[in-house]
Design brief:
The complex is a heterodimer of chains A (318) and B (168). With 318 residues, chain A is α+β, with helices and mostly antiparallel strands. Chain A has six helices and 17 strands. Chain A starts with a helix and ends with a strand. About 11% of the residues of chain A have low confidence. The two termini of chain B are 21 Å apart. The chains are: A alpha+beta (318), B mainly alpha (168). The interface between A and B is large, with 50 and 51 residues.
């Protein structure tokens, strides 16, 4: 019985030759002779063709980011930049773990929460720190300065008024710093910016790559990127109700709402384009996402379909 | 085929009776989910059942573990891909135009390709993907990956041979 593997090795060598930039017409003729030389050669060549044809049906950007996971740093949110290799941003795909369930190492972060978990701690300087789902912070309090760094997720901070302290408190995020002046405020890290919502007191924000300091007053909210700030002039601001286990929304688009509650559970939660703009108001539990989704489907023209164990879809009611 | 033979049936039954609870616990420990473990246990035993010459298996425990492990790795991988795929298309306007059938086909193709590429080093895999998915020439790939053109050609050959072997 002929050794098939020699055949395949030759066929692969021919393939590489033919797809090289410097392939000559003499090469092509030699290949044509080889392919026709025997049935085995022909079969080997066909196998290469049919194996490679599978790749043709995959859109290249989806293919690169999914099949190339672990080999590459790719930002799934920026389709336009996928073809521009210089702009790849790190989104790691640890093997065997779902995307959202990042392993937050306890020995690196001082405080962290898992998906769906909340935590409140009183720091040694009297600052009250509350962490929302899937968040991680490091804390460094010394007599000369105090730094709380948000790496991921969302936190609510109430500074300790009662304790007279000389060293200033600074909140650091990848997008810039927040300097509170006796306040209660919420900081939430989105992928491209950090949203700061101030409830009481005053604070100033300093974007990472811009020297301008921007002052905020109570009941204001802004988005800080590394280059600057965008104030939120609408009525819809993040409320601190998450601390008590629910989301309070007022005229918020369903898509934004779904993206928000998706953080509190495992698996994907997606919203059909046709219902994305339905306006949602009310209070919804974040500890029982199923109940909240059911409530939504009773109040609005939508239905919730649990398609697989890891995918829940919010669809139009028909 | 083995399953129509009643003594083979009896053998499979015995396998199930003796082994299903440790397999279930094994899977449950690895997956952290009872529901998934039950499903995968079924898949495992179906594979066991489909094997010809079951009575030639001298170490049933090792054999079943091997099958269960393969089923589990496959399952976790599919989960990963499905999730990544849905995340990908979420941000693309065109996904509205893909029928559910088309999406299902793309997903299935992704599973198959991913399986074919499994075992390749990151370097080799990436080189191969750049040539097949992005259609880059060997020198463009060499540039991108900061390796020589001859390395690129070696990697492509290696990847292609690897995927062809898996087909058999």
């Amino acid at each position: 019985m002929a050794d098939k593997s020699d055949n395949m090795v030759d066929a692969v060598a021919w393939y590489v030759k033919l797809t090289s930039e410097d392939v000559s017409s003499a090469d092509k003729q030699a290949w044509a002779i080889w392919v026709n030389q025997s049935k085995q050669n022909e079969i080997a060549w066909e196998e290469i063709k049919s194996t490679l044809s599978k790749f043709q049906s995959i859109p290249s950007d989806i293919g690169m980011s999914i099949l190339g996971r672990g080999t590459n740093k790719i930002d799934l949110n920026r389709r336009a930049t996928l073809k521009n290799f210089a702009l790849f941003v790190a989104t790691a795909f640890p093997t065997g773990l779902l995307l959202k369930d990042n392993f937050l190492s306890n020995f690196y972060y001082d405080y962290s929460t898992k998906v769906g978990e909340r935590k409140q701690v009183m720091l040694s300087d009297g600052t009250l720190l509350a962490l929302n789902t899937n968040s991680a912070v490091t804390v460094n309090l010394t007599s000369t300065k105090r730094v709380i760094k948000l790496h991921q997720g969302e936190m609510l901070i109430t500074t300790g008024h009662a304790i007279g302290l000389d060293s200033p408190l600074s909140i650091e995020t990848p997008d810039g710093n927040v300097v509170p002046m006796g306040t209660r405020f919420n900081v939430r890290k989105f992928s491209e910016f950090t949203r700061v919502s101030l409830y009481e007191g005053k604070l100033k924000v300093i974007p990472k790559h811009n020297d301008i300091q921007y002052y905020m007053n109570a009941n204001e909210e802004l988005d800080m990127s590394t280059l600057g700030v965008v104030p939120n002039i609408t009525d819809q601001k993040i409320s601190d109700a998450w601390l008590s286990g629910y989301l309070e929304v007022n005229n918020l688009s369903l898509k934004t709402f779904i993206d928000d509650i998706a953080r509190y559970q495992h698996g994907l939660l997606v919203c059909h384009p046709d219902v994305q703009n339905i306006k949602i108001s009310g209070s919804y539990s974040i500890d029982d996402i199923d109940a909240s989704l059911n409530l939504l489907s009773q109040t609005f023209p939508i239905r919730v379909q649990r398609a697989t164990r890891f995918l829940t879809m919010v669809l139009p009611a028909t | 085929m083995g399953i129509t033979n009643s003594s083979a049936n009896e053998l499979v039954n015995q396998f199930y009776v003796h082994h299903h609870s440790w397999v279930f616990n094994f899977l449950r420990r690895k997956l952290g989910c009872t529901h998934e473990a039950a499903d995968l246990m079924q898949d495992t035993f179906i594979k066991v059942m489909l094997k010809d010459n079951l009575k030639e298996v001298t170490q049933p425990r090792a054999y079943i573990t091997h099958i269960a492990h393969g089923v589990m790795v496959n399952h976790v991988r599919r989960k990963e891909i499905e999730k990544a795929y849905l995340e990908c298309i979420k941000h693309q306007a065109e996904s509205e135009y893909y029928s559910p059938e088309a999406k299902a086909i793309v997903l299935e193709t992704l599973f198959q390709i991913d399986e074919m590429l499994d075992g390749l080093s990151a370097k080799v895999k990436k080189t191969f993907l750049l040539s097949q998915l992005e259609g880059l020439s060997h020198s463009e790939i060499a540039n991108e990956m900061k390796v020589t053109v001859s390395s690129v050609r070696k990697y492509i050959a290696k990847a292609l041979l690897h995927t062809l072997k898996k087909r058999d």
